[in-house]
Design a protein that fits this description.
single chain, Metallo-beta-lactamase, Chain A, 7-stranded mixed β-sheet
């Protein structure tokens, strides 16, 4: 064989191998999700986005939220690991892509239900950092929507503004369990003012939620907690309102308040808190 051809062939093989390694190293795989039992017939899927609730009935599965589109295969696989029942309904807590991004694929296999405001925020592409192909729910409600499936009831309830203008609380009466979406998430609230959120109204919304009979809480992000944990979260929001309102009334400008939010609440420069929450707070809490 001609030596030049051998060299050229080897070089080409090395080039292809290098390209393949670069491709595989640059292909980002979705983070691994996990599923765990919370109560009888109810499981929670954690990781990569908002917490998903999975409620198994004899006639199908009712889910709360569906994370990002990229999580579809993992979610369906994890649901199949605990039941042979199909996913029939998905109740969306709100319109953000880390909770409703999976709608793009789940809309072909399940009925998705959200508040009308969450639907409209997707249609109007309100979320600045959302994927361009978000799909809204086909079924919407204004105040409450109930699902009865396999002898079990799940209530989706709108109780007021907070994280957005269309947050649904998902209540499981028989289990005494509440899924809050991002009305409880992390250690400090993210107020989506472009999406109609309100820090000032948030405590009153949670006050309404506290009237329900529940002992277990699945937050939008973070560990499963209880009613006392939700009350503490509500009280901390009220304290934050008092703190920020006091700064504004002292004549502090937005940059001054930003420094306090970074020092006391961990808001990172350039974060969504700074982009979405800070300007709105300066107006709402005057």
């Amino acid at each position: 064989m001609n030596r030049t051809l051998v060299i050229r062939g080897s070089a080409a093989a090395l080039l292809l191998a290098g390209a393949w390694v670069a491709h595989t190293q640059n292909t980002k795989q979705p983070p691994a999700l996990t599923i765990k039992p919370v109560k009888t017939d109810l499981y929670e899927i954690e990781g990569d986005g908002g917490n998903v609730a999975v409620y198994v009935t004899g006639e199908g599965v009712i889910m709360v939220d569906d994370k990002y589109e990229q999580d579809y295969d993992q979610i369906t696989s994890l649901v199949k690991s605990v039941t042979a029942q199909p996913i029939r309904y998905i109740l969306s807590t709100h319109y953000h892509a880390d909770h409703s991004g999976g709608n793009t694929k789940f809309t072909s296999v399940a009925e998705i239900i959200s508040t009308v405001n969450a639907h409209n925020n997707i249609v109007n592409k309100v979320q600045s950092n959302a994927p361009p192909d978000m799909v809204p729910a086909r079924v919407t409600f204004t105040t409450e929507s109930d699902i009865f499936l396999g002898g079990k009831q799940v209530r989706a309830i709108y109780m007021g503004r907070g994280h957005t203008n269309g947050d649904a609380l998902i209540y499981f009466p028989a289990l005494r369990l509440l899924h809050t979406g991002d009305l409880m998430a992390g250690t400090t609230p993210l107020i989506d003012y472009p999406g109609g959120g309100s820090l000032a109204q948030w405590p009153a919304t949670l006050d309404e939620a506290m009237k329900l009979d529940f002992d277990t809480v699945i937050p939008g992000h973070g560990a499963v907690t209880n009613k006392a944990g939700l009350k503490t979260y509500r009280d901390n929001i009220a304290k934050e309102i008092t703190r920020v309102r006091g700064l504004i009334r002292e004549g502090k400008n937005q940059d001054d308040v930003a420094k306090v939010m970074t020092a006391e609440y961990g808001w990172a420069p350039g974060s969504l808190n700074m982009q979405w929450s800070l300007p709105g707070m300066m107006t709402e809490l005057k």
